[in-house]
Specification:
Length: 676
């Protein structure tokens, strides 16, 4: 046999092997090879049972997502799965790595399943805006029941081999290093067993209470998404007394609806965009990286503590430095509290928390950073302070150490110029809370060397961050686009909109919160000049009255003790005062105008970022906004969203309100182009 599938005859057991790196995706050649392999086993009388297994790091990790949107080549995956299930000889799935999506569905078509303890099994299609389209929504309920099926399909998180054994989704657990032998032995054990267990012949018991509870428990998580409801409907169909064929037809129809929809296109876009962001154009992916065995963090505040936890949790020792003992104690105390909280919630084992704390060295002695391979400065945003720190680091850190600033907008080139080793300097902009938010903007200075950049991008994966390369400009990528949004939102207040109207429009769009809710959370006083007598803006007026946001129980909203917001009459007065002083007339503001002024301007800024090469690609900008600001993933990020809205419409909206449109956006709109 040619192509990615080969077969091996072990006496009376035929082993069908896939070798399709990197993840044995079920592309056309694999499906064709599987079909041929099964036919070979059925045609050979010496074969009493078959095993399907994969070489490389994982069992089939799903359909080949790169094939979506292109004409499907026969045989389709449902056909292959049906063929396996209807075989009149037993077929055993030998599972390692991650049997996901179509890979899981191949196992469900098999009559028996054996997995190594470290294997994971699941149907994450919902994370791509889809559902298991090769019978998974009909077979899982029949094998494991409605409850398990809801969790696996509508939430999309995989389960361990142990849990899958408990749920009946696998029949045996193999030795971690003896899967092939154990699978062949298992196949021989059951070779004569009849009737062959076929999921399609089982019955799923309806469980309306479980469905209702599941919908209620996940209402917030599913808000705005189409796919979860479709998965739930398919699982209900499997248990409503319909025949397997009726269920499959229903699943197919629901799958095609999702596949043709913009949400799945958006979520598939982000799946690849996130992986593309890790690649640095123009740098050899095999470039030698600098070993990072020990990390130093300067500053034990909220950011320094959160940054330290990323490395400690990845098993990388951290030396954290502060200027004063009480600040150091507060910082390390917060780190310990965070780990203890995670352990008490069962997110990590107590011994993991202990190990992390054991790898933390806290000191007031700057010289302790001398043997660190990477030092991250996380002190407050003052250029003079940062220059002084980097000058000191230059003097004490060993040659080859990487020096990074966590600055969120200051000029990384100026910081690098404070050292004699600008090639070793770059920005690592973490998002608060740094131990939770997945986004890391890696800011490439003019002189940052390639291996330093590549080292930090690879390190980001180690600490489970989604990293995006940004150029040196005010606000890099994310905050640079946030700026026009916040400016336009404030202007709209002067023209007659209210904070709650603008926030409502953004939340309805799918953002986790609107501009003013975000200001109250982050702090209205951030960046304020602190002079209560100098009142030049609505924000100055709020800050001057101590309306600093949630932390003072009042900001753009008033808050009760549970931090529930209510519109503030005082804020309305302040806005009215400013409007009067500026001789502005209040007018009706439409929701559409709010979108045009706050989101179209963000897209325009994104286009300028691309023009100035401050981002490598439009999809990187999408990744920044999904992972740094909660942009709804089913809209694919600002640039993908603009493409789906139509760039001509974006340009028209900007011009209608007198905004200068970026050349790149204009030219793309004129040529019916897209950013992605
Ligand atoms: N199709 C095509 N390419 C894939 C792929 C897939 N399913 N999964 C991964 N890749 C590529 C990925 O783009 C990257 O490429 C490389 O493999 C390594 O991936 C009918 C319709 C398996 C847990 O959703 O979750 O089946 O960047 O960097 O961190 O019902 O990949 O190297 O060029 O992520 O070790 C359902 C998606 C599909 C699983 C491995 N399956 N994949 O993680 O490596 S829809 C999924 C993952 C479906 C059926 C339906 C992860 C992983 P490059 P990686 P990793």
């Amino acid at each position: 046999m040619t192509g990615p599938i080969t077969t091996e005859l072990h006496d009376d057991v035929l082993v069908i092997i896939s070798n399709n790196p990197p993840v044995n995706a079920l592309g056309a050649a694999v499906r064709q090879g599987l079909e041929a392999g099964i036919k070979e086993g059925l045609a050979n009388d010496a074969v009493k049972a078959m095993v399907i297994r994969c070489d490389g790091r994982t069992f089939f990790a799903g359909a080949d997502i790169t094939e979506f949107g292109r004409p499907m080549q026969e045989p389709g995956l449902p056909t292959v799965v049906d063929m396996i299930e209807m075989a009149d000889k037993p077929v055993v799935a030998a599972i390692h790595g991650t049997a996901l999506g179509g890979g899981c569905e191949v196992t469900l078509g098999c009559h028996y399943r054996i997995a190594v303890p470290s294997a994971k099994i699941g149907t994450p299609e919902v994370k791509l805006g889809l559902l298991p389209g090769a019978g998974g929504t009909q077979r899982i309920p029949r094998i494991a029941g409605v409850k398990v099926a809801l969790e696996l399909t509508a939430k999309g998180d995989p389960m361990s081999a142990k849990m899958a054994l408990g749920a009946g989704l696998i029949d045996r657990v193999a030795g971690e290093d003896s899967l092939v032998a154990d699978a062949i032995a298992f196949a021989r054990d059951i070779a004569a067993a009849r009737p062959l267990p076929r999921a399609r012949e089982k019955t799923a018991k309806a469980d309306p209470e479980a469905v209702a509870a599941f919908k209620k428990d996940n209402a917030k998580r599913f808000r705005g998404f189409d796919a979860p409801a479709a998965n739930i409907a398919c699982v209900e169909k499997a248990a409503d007394g319909s025949s397997f064929e009726e269920g499959i037809a229903f699943e197919r129809a629901e799958f095609m609806k999702l596949m043709m929809g913009v949400q799945s296109a958006a979520q598939r876009h982000i799946f690849f965009a996130e992986r593309q962001a890790a690649k640095i154009d123009g740098i050899d992916p095999k470039i030698a990286l600098r070993p990072i065995k020990k990390v130093g963090v300067i500053g034990a505040g909220t950011m320094g503590g959160g940054i330290s936890m990323n490395f400690l949790s990845a098993g990388i020792p951290v030396t954290i430095v502060e200027m004063a003992q009480d600040a150091l104690d507060r910082g390390t105390g917060t780190i310990r509290k965070n780990y203890e909280a995670s352990a008490s919630k069962g997110r990590i084992k107590p011994e993991q928390a202990e190990a992390a704390m054991g790898a933390l060295t806290a000191t007031l002695d700057f010289a302790a950073l001398a043997d660190c391979d990477l030092v991250i400065e996380a002190v407050y945003e003052n250029m003079d302070v940062k220059k002084e720190i980097f000058g000191k680091l230059d003097a004490i850190c060993k040659p080859g150490a990487i020096l990074a600033s966590n600055t969120s907008y200051l000029d990384v080139n100026a910081i690098a110029a404070a050292t004699n080793r600008p090639g070793d300097v770059l920005g690592m902009h973490f998002f608060s809370p740094a131990n939770v938010m997945k986004l890391l903007e890696v800011v490439r200075g003019e002189k940052t060397s390639d291996d330093v950049l590549a080292t930090v991008m690879a390190l980001a994966k180690t600490i489970k961050k989604v990293a995006v390369v940004a150029g040196v400009c005010d606000g890099f990528i994310g905050n640079r686009m946030l700026k026009p949004r916040q400016i336009e939102a404030m202007k709209l207040l002067m023209e007659g909109a209210t904070p709650e109207q603008i926030d409502r429009v953004h939340v309805a769009f799918g953002m986790p919160m609107g501009p003013f809710q975000m200001s109250d959370l982050a702090g209205v006083d951030i960046g304020w000049h602190r002079d209560p007598t100098r009142i030049e803006s609505i924000r100055d007026a709020l800050a001057a009255e101590g309306r600093w946001g949630q932390k003072t129980q009042k900001g753009f909203y008033d808050y009760d003790e549970k931090r529930n917001p209510t519109p503030s009459p005082r804020v309305a007065e302040i806005i009215e005062d400013f409007r009067a002083k500026s001789n502005m007339q209040k007018r009706e503001i439409s929701d559409e105008e709010i979108i045009e002024k706050t989101l179209y301007t963000m897209v325009n800024e994104g286009a300028l970022i691309l023009e100035e090469k401050m981002a490598q690609r439009a999809s990187d900008i999408d990744v920044v906004w999904i992972y740094g600001y909660g942009w709804p993933i089913y809209r694919g990020g600002p640039m993908f969203w603009a493409d789906s809205e139509g760039l001509k419409k974006i340009v028209a909206g900007l011009e209608k309100h007198g905004f200068a449109v970026s050349e790149l956006l204009k030219s793309k709109a004129e040529s019916n182009g897209r950013f992605n």
